[in-house]
Write a structure and sequence with these properties.
By secondary structure, the protein is α+β, with helices and mostly antiparallel strands. The chain is built from nine helices and seven strands. The protein folds into two domains: about 5-100, 2-Layer Sandwich (Phosphorylase Kinase, domain 1), CATH 3.30.200; about 110-305, Aminoglycoside phosphotransferase (APH), C-terminal lobe (Aminoglycoside 3'-phosphotransferase, Chain: A, domain 2), CATH 3.90.1200. The strands form two sheets. The chain has a five-stranded antiparallel β-sheet, with helices on both faces. Strands 6-7 form a two-stranded antiparallel sheet. A hairpin with a 2-residue loop joins strand 4 (about 85-90) and strand 5 (about 90-100). Helix 4 runs antiparallel to helix 5, helix 6 (about 210-220) crosses helix 7 (about 230-245) and helix 6 (about 210-220) packs across helix 8 (about 255-280). The longest helix is centred in the last third of the chain and has 26 residues, at about 255-280. This is Aminoglycoside phosphotransferase domain-containing protein.
């Protein structure tokens, strides 16, 4: 679908009079910035295999809005629907128009305690969420990354090591309490509004899996591509600041605390899998695979050393 046709469809479906559209980002879905004379909006077109996630996002945002929790607003269609269906590259895809959020991206280190308290409130509020949440499988968390390494003919011995580590991570995950998780929680998915609240968005990876995963991602002070021995201690310090706010609302068990460091490793399995499934095997190189292998094995050893 070209941009002229997309603008026409949006203006038929919404009362927002869009004049200009530009592609902002393309990964799991396509994100466009929409402009009229006075305002900006965000259009997210979800890949056809993400329809269930898109519709769950709508339900979660509706629930949080109804309970006065600060989240992005969905623009309703002229038919008072939350979304449109459009044909994109011969697939029927869900499209959702969001209000553009004015404000600043928070500093996750300086504001860790305040963010932690608000995320604690989110998790507590979602305990009463009335609908069933999607549960992600081991394929999503671990196994697809291993499959990709094999598809790339990555060193078989290293793949076996990564698979063994992933199996251990998954085994430990099974002992954790289940509950709502945003699933992609970082400061890039929140904006500080004029009231000082953190307005959250991008709930497309939300699940009913592990609240401690959100705590882990907000505490992560590692570098995804470059391993540093100090990363564990930096992450621990950031966790302590974040948890000082989070624990005002709810607490984590000992197993959930240790899982914070496991989820940082799992994040690598997940992100690489997402990139490759969206952009193809050619989007990562053998050197990158080697770097990630070394990162993960060094992280595993560092975590074992600190746990003992």
């Amino acid at each position: 679908m070209d941009y002229c046709n997309l603008i026409e469809l949006i203006n038929l479906s919404y009362r927002i009079g869009i004049q200009h559209i530009e592609l902002h980002r393309e990964m799991i879905g396509r994100v466009f910035l929409l402009h009229n004379e006075d305002k900006r909006y965000v259009l997210k077109v979800y890949r056809s295999n993400k329809t269930d996630d898109a519709l769950q996002t709508v339900r979660i945002l509706d629930y949080l809005k109804a309970n006065s929790y600060p989240v992005v607003s969905i623009v309703q269609t002229v038919q008072d629907d939350s979304h449109i269906v459009l044909n994109w590259q011969d697939d029927n895809c869900i499209g959702i128009v969001y209000e553009y959020i004015e404000g600043d991206t928070p500093d996750g280190k300086i504001e860790a305690e305040l963010i932690g308290e608000q995320i604690g409130s989110l998790h507590q509020l979602m305990e009463k969420y009335p609908d069933k949440l999607i549960n992600r499988t081991k394929l999503v968390y671990i196994d697809d990354y291993i499959s990709i390494m094999r598809e790339l003919d990555f060193d078989s011995g290293k793949v076996i090591e990564l698979e063994h580590y992933g199996n251990k991570l998954w085994e430990r995950m099974q002992s954790l309490p289940k509950g709502f998780s945003h699933g992609d929680l970082h400061t890039g998915n929140m904006i500080t509004n004029h009231s000082g609240q953190y307005v959250l968005f991008d709930f497309d990876e939300a699940s009913g899996d592990y609240p401690s995963m959100d705590v882990a991602y907000m505490s992560d002070d590692t570098n995804f591509n470059l391993f540093h021995d100090a990363a564990y201690d930096r992450t621990m310090r950031l966790y302590e600041r974040f948890y000082s706010g989070y624990s005002k609302i709810r607490t984590l068990s000992d197993n959930e605390f240790y899982a914070v460091f496991d989820f940082i490793a799992i994040r690598h399995y997940q992100i690489i899998s997402r990139i490759v499934r969206c952009q193809g095997l050619s989007s990562i190189s053998k050197d990158f695979c080697d770097e990630q292998y070394n990162w993960l094995i060094r992280w595993k050893n560092l975590c074992m050393k600190n746990k003992n």
